[in-house]
Every structure is written in C-alpha cells, then in structure tokens.
Amino acid sequence: xxxxxxxxxxxxxxxxxxxxxxxxxxxxxxxxxxxxxxxxxxxxxxxxxxxxxxxxxxxxxxxxxxxxxxxxxxxxxxxxxxxxxxxxxxxxxxxxxxxxxxxxxxxxxxxxxxxxxxxxxxxxxxxxxxxxxxxxxxxxxxxxxxxxxxxxxxxxxx
Length: 158
What we know:
The structure is a single chain. Helix 3 links the parallel strand 3 and strand 4. Helix content is 41%, strand content 20%. The protein has helices spanning 26-35, 37-40, 49-59, 73-82, 102-114, 123-131, 146-153, and strands spanning 6-11, 16-21, 44-47, 63-65, 88-92, 119-120, 139-144. The protein is α/β, with parallel strands linked by helices. The longest helix is centred in the C-terminal third of the chain and has 13 residues, at 102-114. The protein has a single domain (14-139), classed as Rossmann fold (3-Layer(aba) Sandwich). The chain has 7 helices and 7 strands, in the order E-E-H-H-E-H-E-H-E-H-E-H-E-H. It comes from Stutzerimonas zhaodongensis. It is an enzyme of class 4 (lyase). The active site is at residue 74. It catalyses: dihydroxyacetone phosphate = methylglyoxal + phosphate.
C-alpha cells in the first residue's frame, strides 16, 4: 500500500459544524446545543434528519438537514467531510446501544479522523472544542494529499 502524503489546508473562521446524535443521546445533544447556542449561532450547522429538525426547533437557528442516519444521513455527512464541506463533527453516540447502521457510524468516525477535522464524541469533548479560541479563527491543519495519491495509482501508459 502506498503511503499517503499530507498537505496543509485551512479551516475557515466560520465553521461548518455537523451535529449527529443516536436516539438515546438526542436529549443530551439538544441540551448541550442550547447551552452552546451563542457559540453555535456564529457557524453553519448541519445535522442528520431528526436531530436537525429538533435542533432547528429548539434553537431557532437554521440547520441544514440530511436524511436520517440509518437511512444514509451518516454517509451524507461523511461524504461532505471528504469533500471538505464540513469542518467539525459533534457526534453524541451511544456506546452501549447496538446500532443497525453501525458500519456507517464507524465509517463516519473514520472519515473524520482521515480528514483530520475536530471531532467530539461526547459532551465534555464538545465543550472543549467549542470553548477553544481556535473555534472562531481560521487555522491550518494537515489533510491527505488525495491528488498525489491518485497520480501514484494511474497506469503508466495514460
């Protein structure tokens, strides 16, 4: 397997924040988001289906909603991360409850790690992310150099 090279990219000052929660964690995410409303309202919010509808109603803020996680919403969020259209992921997941879409959940967590975006998996880590001075600043991070990766895989005769 070829080694992946990395390049520098910049996260904007106004972040695109994806908010995701398993069913048993939605209440905690809603309470957390309400406490963090003044920070969240400065950014663009995206969420999977039901979570997004509930957040929009509770916060009175615009939330772009994907479809429900088990129906492909987790994959939609993951695709946007890979396309560099999401800058941060807050995912309150339930480690004690088996999920029928567990492979999608693992794929979402993996793609967030691959693309080196800030990821909070619980309330404490989400508080740390949102209280960081970097939240409202543009800042650099390393991401995979996908162009070089593809170039290394092209057949020599092309």
